[in-house]
């Protein structure tokens, strides 16, 4: 039987083409996805490696941070201990100063008493000298009379001998000779009486002389006591004058470094201190006046830069005239600007080859400008870190270059800090003085 209709085909050619195209697209997408997955896996592996490395770096930085914190804690404890030690030394120095002041007052009172006793003794001695002069005059007259009487007695004795011989030779004239002898005896008695009176006067004068000798001995004792008290007074005064709040005032060729930055007329950033700069000036004048061995000096001012107050080079010290000249010049200065301590020290140590032996630094803060930072640090570090780095650079330069020992000796540096709040300021000035054989004192607020 013949089939009338063609049986339907399940898969035609065009359907096969469509299926093949779809399969190719799926395969292509699978290949692309596989490739992207491999790339992503590689990137993920790199990210995991980078993350592990970052975690390692973070742990290392955390360890470094912990160590740095420990170092900072140790440094803070050390600075606190140094500050407590410094405060104890300051208290001991203040106690010693007060004790010396009390001794000085007591010695002055003893000296005044001794002076009063000496004046009374001198008055009495003057009276005794007048009496002695009168007695000596009377004694001279009596001695002259005694000499005349003795001469007369000698003459009478000679005459008596002659008369005795005449009596032996001339018996006939014995009566007349006897009468003459009686007359001579009367004269001899008169001379003897005069001699006795003169002897009495001489004894009285000798008594007055003994009293005068006793008075003179008292005067000598009082003068000795006066000399001892004067020595004691001078010694106490020298001990007091030769120290300034615990700093031994020494030096023949001395440079005074005076901070004239803006803070030297302020209590803090916003509060003026009208008496601060005059106090600094008077402190410098007192130190100059108390340097017993001072021969030559120079005053160097520093703020943004450094310059000498007077003509460059050494200036001869002329006592109060030099003190007044420096005081007047400093009072005309208006403090302003940064604190460039490096340039000040560099300028001062140029005088070391010509005999510089002592520096006195008068300041109230840490260095804020000058050499010691890289260009990058100049742009990036803050004020606190800047001062810390500049301070360390100055201390290193002092040890290695400026104040390195020459012939076994170094320049002594004393520091006076004025009215500062930050303990870092005191620590820096104390370290600077200690490292250079000097002393440091912090002045209280006005």
Written account of the structure:
The chain is α/β, with parallel strands linked by helices and 446 residues long. It folds into two domains: 134 residues, Helix Hairpins (Orthogonal Bundle); 201 residues, von Willebrand factor, type A domain (Rossmann fold), CATH 3.40.50. Helices cover 67% and strands 9% of the residues. The chain contains eight helices and nine strands. A hairpin with a 2-residue loop joins β1 and β2. 20% of the residues are buried. About 1% of the residues have low confidence.
Biggest β-sheet description:
7 strands, mixed
Q: What string gives the helices and strands in order?
A: HHEEEHEEEHHEHHEHE
Poorly predicted runs of 5 or more residues: 238-242
CATH architecture of the largest domain: 3-Layer(aba) Sandwich
State the main characteristics.
single chain, 446 residues, alpha/beta, Helix Hairpins, Rossmann fold, 2 domains, 8 helices, 67% helix
Give a brief description.
The chain has 446 residues and is an alpha/beta fold. It has helices spanning 13-169, 174-241, 276-290, 320-331, 341-348, 375-380, 383-402, 423-435, and strands at 243-244, 247-248, 253-259, 296-302, 306-308, 315-316, 358-363, 412-418, 440-443. The chain folds into 2 domains: 105-238, Helix Hairpins (Orthogonal Bundle); 243-443, von Willebrand factor, type A domain (Rossmann fold), CATH 3.40.50.
Can you lay out the helices and strands and say which pair or pack?
Layout: H1 13-169, H2 174-241, E1 243-244, E2 247-248, E3 253-259, H3 276-290, E4 296-302, E5 306-308, E6 315-316, H4 320-331, H5 341-348, E7 358-363, H6 375-380, H7 383-402, E8 412-418, H8 423-435, E9 440-443
Parallel strand pairs: 3-4, 3-7, 7-8, 8-9
Antiparallel strand pairs: 1-2, 4-5, 4-6
Helix pairs in contact: 1-2, 3-4
């Amino acid at each position: 039987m013949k089939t009338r209709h063609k049986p339907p085909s399940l898969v035609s050619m065009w359907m096969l083409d469509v299926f093949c195209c779809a399969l190719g697209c799926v395969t292509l997408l699978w290949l692309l996805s596989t490739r992207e997955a491999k790339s992503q896996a590689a990137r993920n592996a790199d990210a995991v490696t980078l993350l592990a490395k970052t975690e390692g770096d973070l742990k290392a930085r955390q360890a470094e941070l912990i160590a740095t914190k420990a170092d900072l804690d140790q440094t803070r404890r050390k600075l606190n201990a140094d500050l407590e030690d410094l405060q104890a030394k300051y208290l001991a120095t203040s106690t010693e100063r007060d004790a010396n002041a009390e001794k000085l007052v007591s010695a002055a009172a003893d000296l005044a008493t001794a002076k009063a006793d000496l004046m009374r003794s001198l008055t009495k001695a003057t009276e005794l000298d007048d009496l002695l002069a009168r007695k000596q005059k009377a004694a001279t007259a009596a001695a002259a009379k005694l000499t005349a009487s003795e001469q007369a007695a000698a003459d009478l004795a000679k005459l008596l001998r002659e008369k005795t011989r005449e009596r032996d030779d001339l018996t006939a004239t014995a009566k007349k000779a006897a009468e003459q002898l009686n007359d001579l005896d009367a004269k001899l008695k008169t001379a003897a009486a005069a001699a006795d009176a003169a002897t009495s006067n001489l004894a009285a004068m000798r008594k007055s002389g003994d009293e005068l000798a006793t008075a003179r001995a008292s005067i000598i004792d009082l003068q000795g006591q006066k000399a001892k008290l004067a020595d004691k007074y001078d010694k106490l005064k020298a001990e007091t004058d030769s120290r300034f709040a615990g700093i031994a005032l020494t030096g023949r060729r001395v440079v005074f470094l005076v901070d004239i930055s803006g803070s030297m007329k302020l209590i803090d950033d916003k509060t003026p201190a009208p008496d601060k700069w005059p106090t600094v000036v008077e402190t410098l004048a007192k130190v100059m006046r108390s340097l017993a061995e001072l021969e030559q000096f120079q005053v160097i001012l520093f703020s943004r830069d450094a310059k000498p107050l007077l003509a460059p080079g050494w200036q001869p010290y002329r006592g109060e005239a030099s003190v007044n000249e420096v005081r007047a010049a400093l009072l005309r200065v208006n403090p302003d600007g940064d604190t460039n301590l490096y340039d000040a020290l560099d300028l001062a140590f140029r005088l070391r080859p010509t005999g510089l032996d002592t520096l006195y630094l008068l300041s109230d803060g840490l260095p804020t400008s000058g050499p010691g930072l890289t260009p990058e640090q100049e742009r990036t570090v803050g004020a606190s870190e800047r001062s810390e780095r500049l301070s360390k650079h100055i201390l290193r330069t002092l040890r290695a270059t400026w104040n390195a020992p020459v012939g076994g000796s170094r320049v002594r540096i004393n520091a006076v800090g004025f009215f500062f709040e930050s303990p870092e300021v005191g620590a820096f000035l104390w370290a600077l003085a200690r490292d250079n054989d000097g002393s440091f004192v912090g002045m209280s607020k006005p």
